[in-house]
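Table S2 (continued). Query chain:
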Amino acid sequence: MGVTDPAGPVMDRDEVDRALARLGAEHEAIETSLLALQDHAGRRLLEGAELTGTTRERWTAAEASITLLWAYFDAYTDALHTAREIRARRRWSSREDLVELTELLRGDSITVAGSATATANAPTLLSAAGRLSERFSLAALVDRMNELYATSLDMVVTADAVWSALPARIDLLAAELQRTRKLAHSVGVRPGEHPAGDDLERITRILTKLREDVVSDPLAFWVPAPGSSAPGGGRPDTTVYDRQARALEEVRREIDAVLTVRQDAEARLIKLRDVLSRADRTLAEARTARGEVLAKIAATEVPVVSGPPTVLQEQLATAAEYRRQAQWHRLSPLLESLEQKAEDELLRARESLTAVTAPLAVRAELRGRLDAYKAKMARHGLAEDPFLIERYDAARRMLWSAPCDLRVAGQAVLRYQQAAAEALGAPRVPQQSGPEDRRGE
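Corresponding output:
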């Protein structure tokens, strides 16, 4: 190795043999990779697809790269074949043979002729654009092939990953969409008549457009993995698909609700009629009670009782008509609204009855308190006390007369309580602002 030439020190026979063995193994590995790339399903799909956008641009570059790869590989194969022939001339290679082998194995001895168009389209060879040939060493040629192979494989694997993931999922969702559309039509949910029908039309349009875009430009639906340099590092972008899947699920839930209405409509209508009927009866009772209060209680403000709202009965009749015509999509929201309004109406009627009968409840409380104190006096042997009898009779006449002045009657009951307390030797009952139940004393 003492003698040198432009390629560096001349290699000896052992170095040549080791280099040829390494280059042979490298040649086999490169050939295997190129054949795998050539047979890759993604590459075959790319060749037959009508591409657009980013995918079209990158596939043009990848095709040029693959063309150059085979040209480089052929040059590499020829150089290796030539080196093997030179080494096979003699068992013990001459110095001239070793010099030639050194130049071939280490020098820039390989000339690659190629298309200027292919060279210009290859993304990693911008510096070589426009040249009709290039010179490489075997090591530089392998580096260039590795570079082109990595970019080409990344493009092919990425497109194949998107095509393998998204179209099939879109087709499954589209099939589910068609089943949902048929179910929706069966319950009257149609575009222009129900919001869910409009949603189904919108989802159909978006899925159709999404599939067309995925097939023609798969790379537009790829999210690279941060910091990853491996071919195909990343994942398909399913954002649009996921959004439509969620929207379809919401529509399904709404249609299920409509189907539930179809099954339970009669029972719900019966229940609605019962609730409204109870509200009407309660209001009627409140109106009757108001007349009684006005007749029996004096100097009391009694609230006016309104009549039942006719609009609820009209809506109930509309709901029954929707059921008769099987317009379930219209019946569903109307029933939900009516059920809430009916419960509110029943609550309002009960509150009206409570407000109207409040004076009668006060009178009843005063009567009960008066009788309770009388019974207490009887237990203590004071039932025949003239003063207590006088106070009791005065209070009783006021409470059992009509109309009854609750304020005056309350004061009379209080006076009887005070007299009873004095008779028992208890502290005097304090003045009170209104009736109070003291039956426990």
